[in-house]
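Incident review: delayed structure delivery

Summary: a single-chain prediction request sat in the queue longer than the usual turnaround. Root cause was a stuck worker, restarted by the on-call engineer. No data loss occurred. The affected request and its eventual output are reproduced below so the record is complete for anyone auditing the incident later.

Affected input:
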Amino acid sequence: MDSDDPAFLSRLGNRYGVSSAFLSDDDDDDEHDEGDVQNAHEPRQGRLPNVPATDGDTFSPFQWDLRQTGVTDAHAITGGSPAVLVGDLDSGVDYEHPDLRENLDLENSASCLGGVPNQAPDPITGRLPFDDTLGHGTHTAGTIAAADNGLGTVGVAPNVRLASVKVADSAGKIYPEAAICGFMWAATHGFDVTNNSYSVDKHVLDPARPERNGFYCRDDRGERVVITALRRAVSFAMRRGVTVVASAGNNNTDLANPPAGNQCLRLPVELPGVVGVSSESPIRQKTFNSNYGLGVIDLTAPGGDPLQPALPPAVPMPTGQVLSTWPTRLAAQPGVRLDGVAPYRNMFGTSSAAAHVSGVAALLISRYGDNSPRNGRVKPRKVAAMLMSGATPIACPPNPYVREVIGPPPPLGGTYTANCYGRDRYNGFFGHGEVNALAAVGG
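Output delivered after worker restart:
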């Protein structure tokens, strides 16, 4: 998005519903650092209602991801609190899915397409505006909060409330105005966590600079305005108590040293205070195409790997992917499995990884949060520090890390090479380590 028009900045504020405060250059320092992690300590148990969860649903045996991250053990302590609200900023959700509808908060769900929140049903179809026609949002929503009801799968935090905020259009594009609207909606509707399994797209790509696709760059005036506006929206949400979690992306790119140059950012994962998540496999390797970067990645979590060369016994064959809910309207797609009429599907990538971290953040807030009238039951900076201090460290593999993916045609097939920098307890592939749900809830 390029503009030399001096009125562009004011139009951005008007169109996206962002006040001028979000477009100024001075910003509060919401970014967490290693000092926060080292100084993190377990707070006292809060006063929110908490009920344990079980993991005995039909497809629970296939949920290797929950066992690997201590979620099933954490469920003996809490499955989350209905006082906690998690927003899934994504392609919407199948709000009639039997494994999602009992936890879905329709009053706090909306579509943000076009930059303006909308809750009105479609006048022709009668469908709510955050209905999911792509599947991605329904999948991440199930990983976060699929109900513990004996059906299908169990989410990381199956007792919390879930709000769907649609930010992806019918082509799967997430433009700045939608993302900004989503953060503003979360900030003003009492959200405790937002899951952001996406990167912000550009309306217009520059064919002369393809390396900048997927990035916003500070050396471009128009793109700098977008960076500032998004940073302000995220900062506002955090000041209102929203913990912001984001996926790193699936391009095998070092976000600390991107080909576009260090003046270029992937949004929202590289914004201050955002918990950045990479993807790991069932044998705790970096998923072959997960992005990475020292100082960008805070945690890793199961995103799965469909081409994993070896699977541990705890992972049911034939897949090492993440199984979660899928829209009923897409139940005829290949690879969908049914529990009665409820559809589920395997997927992989950092989107699934971020959803796990969002769910664990919700468990932590459920366990330690207070019941204050304002949001911020556990302050976002505290949530991030506790997640990182409780993570299970994973050391860098020897450099270069090479994954040869044989069989599938491009874009998946080929050789993936990456270099991991940092220490055993903090590095560019895994951040502070694998998210640990049991440690997060004090087990």
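Verification: Residues 1-29 have pLDDT under 50 and may be disordered.
Action items: add queue-age alerting; document worker restart procedure.
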